[in-house]
Amino acid sequence: MTELHLVRHGPPAAADDVPPSRWELHADAAEAVAELAASGVLPERARWFSSPEPKALATARLLTATSVTVYDALGEVRRPAGRVGDLTEHARRGFAEPDVPALPGWEMYVAARTRISRGVKNVLAGLGGEPLVVVGHGTVFTLLVAELTGTSPDVDAWTRMTLPDHCLLGG
Questions:
Q1: Do 78 and 104 touch, CB atoms closer than 8 A?
Q2: pLDDT tens digit string along 46-61?
Q3: Contact 8, 161 (CB under 8 A)
Q4: What is the pTM of this model?
Q5: pLDDT band at 142 (very low <50, low <70, confident <90, very high)
Q6: Are 46 and 132 in contact (CB under 8 A)?
Q7: CA-to-CA distance for 37 and 143, rounded, in angstroms?
Q8: I need a surface site. Which of 34, 39, 105, 117 has the fewest CB within 10 A?
């Protein structure tokens, strides 16, 4: 398998009245992203792809001076603006019952899993073995890893993710 680096975006500037898909990076996020860049876990040469969401694209642009391809299939589980209470509880429900929206207006996890899996597989098919860095989101990355490894989503790993975070598959 091609070396696949999954990078979860840096800390967002969350706002209740803005859908999460439009959140920017937090003003203090650059330091955390710089720590990831300095860690040495990212390849020196790779193709870079990002979710279209501002927090992910800004993270990618802080991590590399090379071009970053924006790809809609890499977006997070879609959900509307507004407070949701315990996000972890709702996400756990989405992982456990992927054919039912975790809350009204949320994208079903089965749809998000299909979307990101197809998207990443399409990108990988065109690379010819070159390392790939995908900058995106924890929930869809959890679904993607499950799809690529033929396992159930590792919800405990999802809860331990940091902002930003890195996971390497293959290579």
A1: no
A2: 999 999 999 999 999 9
A3: yes
A4: 0.97
A5: very high
A6: yes
A7: 25
A8: 39
42 is written with which tokens?
């990212």
Largest CA distance in the chain: 44
CB atoms closer than 10 angstroms to residue 122 = 11
Beta carbons of 168 and 4 less than 8 angstroms apart? yes
- Give pLDDT, residue 129: 86
Count CB atoms within 10 A of the CB of residue 111: 15
Buried b (16+ CB within 10 A) or exposed e, 124-147: beeeeeebbbbbbbbbbbbbbbbb
Residues 6+ apart with CB under 8 A from 114: none
